[in-house]
UniProtKB/TrEMBL annotation:
Highest taxon, organism lineage: Bacteria
Domain (ABC transmembrane type-1) ranges: 75-278
Keywords assigned by UniProt, alphabetized: Cell membrane, Membrane, Transmembrane, Transmembrane helix, Transport
Protein name: Carbohydrate ABC transporter membrane protein 2 (CUT1 family)
Main location as per UniProt: membrane
Subcellular location: Cell membrane
Pfam families the UniProt entry points to: BPD_transp_1 (PF00528)
GO CC, any one term: plasma membrane
Membrane-spanning ranges: 14-36, 75-98, 110-135, 141-162, 183-208, 228-247, 259-278
Family: Belongs to the binding-protein-dependent transport system permease family.
InterPro entries according to UniProt: MetI-like, MetI-like_sf
């Protein structure tokens, strides 16, 4: 039997619906404005301060940023860094998180203290650059992957998730003759799809948005990921001095505003296409991984 809600409860529900609707609109409308602006004409963009549906569609901004193969090459670079970096980080994070989730591991508290310490303090940009340079990683894609291979926050979430799995499963597997590696790959990982999907998304977004490390460690423009190349395009479209040799000199640049919007769309759409496939695991993985018994 469903109990009738009180007036206070109904008002609270109405308030929640209104609040969530406002938050959703504040989040979605600017992005719709950016997409619409990237397809709008020069006249419409300059006349309207806020645009949701362009009256006349044009692809001038996209023709401009795709006028050479620079964008496609940088997209492939970003995709490669994202895939390889995510797989590498997930392997290292999973191995370390599983080890730290074992309560019989000697020195577990000391290692966890060092992990948490890195969340509060780090060497900074210049010492990290000197270490990367000393390792000979300048102008190497590994310079974008190795320094950020294991994220302490992601490691703790995954360790907590592993730690909350029933201990009886491992004991039953050991009785059946399974070793630690077998327990990890045949018992623990199949039960950890939510946290694996969540942490994979965290890492993938981080590698896709690689920007500062690419500027610091990659001197060869042909190795730049999409974020750095798009920055160069925005600067070029704004009329500032920048190396525009990669672009057609006879091409007339569209207004700065439409180029910026097209750049944002190009850099955001790939991540948005991946998110729906992982969304069903996202809340569960983050919630269960954040619980500490």
């Amino acid at each position: 039997m469903v109990q009738d809600k009180t007036w206070g409860s109904r008002l609270f529900d109405i308030f929640n619906y209104i609040l969530l609707t406002v938050v959703a609109l504040v989040t979605i409308l600017p992005f719709i404005h950016v997409i619409a602006g990237s397809f709008a004409t020069v006249k419409e963009v300059t006349q309207k301060s806020f645009l949701l549906i362009p009256t006349e569609f044009t692809l001038d901004a996209y023709r401009y940023i795709f006028s050479t193969d620079t964008i496609l090459r940088s997209l492939f670079v970003s995709i490669g860094i994202t895939i390889i970096g995510t797989l590498f980080s997930m392997f290292l994070t999973t191995m370390m998180a599983y080890g730290l989730s074992r309560r019989d591991l000697d020195g577990r508290r000391v290692i966890m203290f060092m992990v948490v310490f890195t969340m509060l303090f780090n060497g900074g940009m210049i010492p990290t650059f000197l270490v990367v340079k000393a390792m000979g990683l300048i102008d190497s894609y590994m310079a974008l992957i190795l320094p950020t291979a294991i994220n302490a926050f992601n490691l703790i979430i995954m360790r907590n998730f592993f730690q909350n799995l029933p201990a009886g499963l491992e004991e039953a597997a050991k009785i059946d003759g399974c070793n630690d590696i077998g327990i990890l790959f045949r018992i623990v990982l199949p039960l950890s799809k939510p946290v694996l999907a969540t942490i994979s998304l965290f890492y993938a977004v981080t590698y896709w948005n690689t920007y500062m490390n690419a500027i610091l460690y990659l001197n060869d423009p042909t190795k730049w990921p999409i974020q750095v190349v798009l920055r160069q395009i925005v600067i070029l479209a704004s009329g500032m001095s920048v190396d525009g040799a990669a672009f057609d000199p006879d091409f007339v640049a569209p207004p700065e505003q439409t180029v910026k919007m097209a750049v944002i769309v190009v850099a955001t759409v790939p991540v948005l296409l991946v998110y729906p496939f992982l969304q069903k695991y996202f809340a569960k993985g983050a919630l269960l991984g954040s619980i500490k018994d």
